[in-house]
Amino acid sequence: MAFVSIRDLRVAFDGVQVLHGIDLDIRHGEAVGLVGESGCGKSVTWLAALGLLPGKARVSGSVRIDGQELIGAPRRTVERMRGARVAMIFQDPSSSLNPVQRVGRQIVESLTLHRGLRGAAARAEAVRLLDLVGIPSAATRADLYPHEFSGGQCQRIMIAMALAGEPDLLIADEPTTALDATIQAQILDLLARLRRETGMAMVFISHDLGAVSAVCDRAAVMYAGRVVEADRIDRLFSAPRHPYTCGLFDAIPDLDAGRGRLRPIQGVVPDPKALPVGCAFAPRCDRATDFCHRHRPELKPQATGGPLACFHPVGRDGAPLHAPVEEPA
Ligand SMILES: Nc1ncnc2c1ncn2[C@@H]1O[C@H](COP(=O)(O)OP(=O)(O)OP(=O)(O)O)[C@@H](O)[C@H]1O
Prior knowledge:
This protein is an alpha/beta fold. The protein has a domain at 4-85 and 211-318: 3-Layer(aba) Sandwich (Rossmann fold), CATH 3.40.50.300. It contains eleven helices and ten strands. The strands form two sheets. A six-stranded mixed beta sheet has the order 6-7-8-3-9-10, with helices on both faces. Strands 2-1-4-5 form a four-stranded antiparallel beta sheet, covered by helices on one side. β1 and β2 (16-26) form a beta hairpin. Bound molecules: adenosine-5'-triphosphate (ATP). Adenosine-5'-triphosphate binds next to α1.
């Protein structure tokens, strides 16, 4: 059984639907990426799953973690799940670190809360965690304040705090976006290593397919509040099928060639208040036909590879796939 099972998750704010029925499974120890441009619904998916959206949000569907249903569950049940089994890290460490408290103390508090550790044992474990995430001279630097560390080190400290509860699932929401490329690569290496060593499952949210591939086994590509393609990372890389996924690949910065973005996708993600009638990506898609503008493709299982929602998927080398997902009428 999947450790996390999301079914038909929908979210609306003030009557505007922003998530349109997300299905996603994550097995124990698996790392799954959620990829897509800003505004596609990556963060809202997890904030909804963990009961962290503002009260005005209307959430429906099902989110089970280790068999426990969280949508509609009592607040205490959701809070217990969040504290004990699931940890989150965000783009901006300063949102999670207290600027006026020594970092070691902050980790100790987390250890006391989640694992009941106190005194010297808690202190020793805090130092071990700082060491584990690569803070040099952890025993002495545990007594410093957050502003005495670099941005990358603060991100490492936040990861140490997240690990303090020994989570079964770590949700990392754009954890490297604010960092420069070298530090970003180090943090990605760290997350991949921690996942191997601890066996925890991970959700890695990013607009950057390259970053996702460094950490994840599988990824779901989101567009305008829906999953449009999901597959193993190796298959997504070797043969992306949805034109949007192909566009994300083309937009990965080619650092070796010393260039920035290669070929950004033209246009912008549609406003959830004014979604196109047919495929939401059609206005930006050079494969779109009249049919695509009038009909919305469902996410459907495929004979080979993961599910896909496209009437005109791309095959290897840009050639059309032999069997379209749904033969346009
Ligand atoms: N509290 C809120 N109230 C109203 N609309 C919201 C709220 N939070 C998110 N949204 C809307 O929900 C949609 C999905 O947002 P979400 O933050 O999940 O996107 P994202 O893919 O994670 O993008 P980013 O990478 O910028 O975080 C967007 O249209 C956003 O404006």
